[in-house]
UniProtKB/TrEMBL annotation:
GO terms for molecular function: transferase activity. The chain crosses the membrane at residues 103-130, 142-164, 176-194, 222-243, 250-269, 298-317. Signal peptide: none annotated. This is 4-amino-4-deoxy-L-arabinose transferase-related glycosyltransferase of PMT family. Keywords: Membrane, Transferase, Transmembrane, Transmembrane helix. It comes from the Bacteria.
Length: 443
């Protein structure tokens, strides 16, 4: 196991050296850094506290308070440790073969050490499922409740698990209600905490899939990434269920039900097809791998092939990372102008991170910019539904300068021709000063 862990950590270092492709990693960092610096659970980009589930952000905030509020690498380490925790559970439940299937799957290689909530929720879901599998009811209820407060993506699994337990103990209603009540209460609390985020999720899904009007196109996009990472684990899981169907019935319900729900949500345009949603599915499928001695070589052979796929996906990773380069450049320009008397107004968590501005000096586009603000705007009409700045100032989405704005920096990068978001930095106009602004616009 030690050799597998060491090699996986080396893979994570390679992935981290290539950069971060998804904005969510920066957004989670921003909320956690806000908590670490101020003790207030607030999303600077939305100005609200009831849009995200609290568990990951408070855990990450404590980690950042220890290792530095701007230390995104520390959050990567935290996620890697959580992922390795899931692998350790798999070793105990299904052996080393299940763990390597999970660790060397491309989905885990790409997402296992990102500063996102899925490594935490995967560990909690897996712990809850395995505890209930072994009839450790109180322990399982505790982990399922934490999962419900960690990640909305785990909610279908929480509901499936509650149904599973209700069926298991249908002849013992007292036991049934006692151990399923706690996760249901946690789920209700989670729904109340995140009711403002549901609309935002749907808007992002519509932006992500606006070029895919038909159901066949949506499934084609879904399959383009997921077939190679999921085909082998699915086949091994099916074999494991056939070999020992009674023992694996609960896990099979969770994995199969989650796959159906995920496909339905993506096909319905209510969820993007991001690979991070599959992390918990890969863990559950790995837990279903056959443990019979005569079949024990199969998971290792599959893991070797998945590792080859992982290297292929790592080759593609820079193509996704480079799409964030204009936002990085804007943030780096702002990092040389951190001013405790000013605010930074932006809807981009990437700009926020690279600016090195403290979170309490950052506001989203909901905040009215004034003469003491820098405004870093994503000037891309595709996002006018989701970015408040584009709603407040429609001229930005049209490539124009709103009245009273003065352009001070416009990073020009070739990636904008291939889907990267264009960024412009403005100040409120207080008079013409070409000596101050012209040089920055050109560089």
């Amino acid at each position: 196991m030690g050799v597998a862990v060491a090699f996986w950590l080396w893979l994570q270092l390679q992935r981290q050296a290539l950069g971060i492709a998804w904005e969510d990693s920066y957004h989670h960092w921003l909320i956690a850094a806000q908590i670490a610096r101020t003790g207030v659970a607030l999303d600077p980009l939305t100005g609200t506290s009831n849009g995200w589930l609290p568990l990951y952000h408070w855990l990450a905030a404590g980690w950042l308070a220890t290792f530095g509020w701007h230390n995104l690498g520390a959050l990567a380490t935290l996620s890697a440790l959580l992922t390795l925790g899931s692998a350790a559970l798999l070793v105990r439940h299904a052996g080393l073969g299940a763990a390597v299937i999970f660790l060397f799957n491309p989905i885990t290689v790409l997402n296992g050490s990102l500063s996102i909530v899925e490594p935490l929720s995967t560990l909690l879901v897996l712990a809850g499922a395995l505890a209930w599998q072994k009839e450790r009811l109180l322990c399982g209820s505790f982990f399922w409740s934490l999962a419900a407060l960690a990640d909305r993506g785990s909610w279908p699994l929480v509901l499936l698990a509650v149904g599973w337990q209700a069926w298991q103990y249908r002849e013992h209603p007292r036991v049934q209600y006692l151990w399923t009540l706690l996760p249901v209460v946690a789920l209700a609390i989670g729904l109340w905490l995140t009711h403002q985020e549901s609309e935002r999720t749907l808007l992002w899904a519509s932006v992500d899939q606006q070029q895919l009007p038909g159901l066949s196109q949506k499934f084609a996009q879904l399959a383009a990434f997921s077939v190679r990472p999921l085909a082998l684990p699915l086949a091994l899981a099916a074999l494991g269920v056939l070999v020992n169907s009674k023992k694996q019935a609960g896990l099979a319900l969770l994995a199969g039900g989650y796959l159906v729900v995920l496909g339905a949500l993506v096909a319905g345009g209510e969820l993007t097809g991001s690979s991070r949603y599959y992390l918990v599915l890969v863990a559950l499928l790995a837990a279903l791998c056959p443990t019979h001695r005569k079949l024990s070589v199969l998971p290792f052979a599959a893991a070797a092939l998945l590792l080859v796929f992982s290297f292929d996906y790592l080759q593609l990773w820079p193509r996704w990372v480079v799409l964030g380069r204009p936002s990085e450049l804007a943030g780096e320009w702002l990092a040389r102008r951190v001013d405790p008397a000013r605010l930074l107004i932006t809807d981009s968590p990437v700009v926020a991170f690279y600016s090195h501005w403290p979170p309490e000096r950052i506001r989203g586009g909901f905040y009215p910019p004034d003469k003491n603000s820098y405004i870093a705007a994503i000037t891309d009409r595709r996002y006018r539904q989701v970015y408040p700045l584009l709603k407040r100032f429609p001229a930005l989405a049209a490539g124009q300068i709103p009245p009273g704005f003065q352009l001070v920096y416009a990073p020009h990068h070739w990636s904008t021709s291939y889907g990267a978001k264009a960024v412009r930095v403005f100040v409120r106009q207080t008079g013409h000063n070409p000596a101050l602004f012209t040089k920055d616009v050109l560089n």
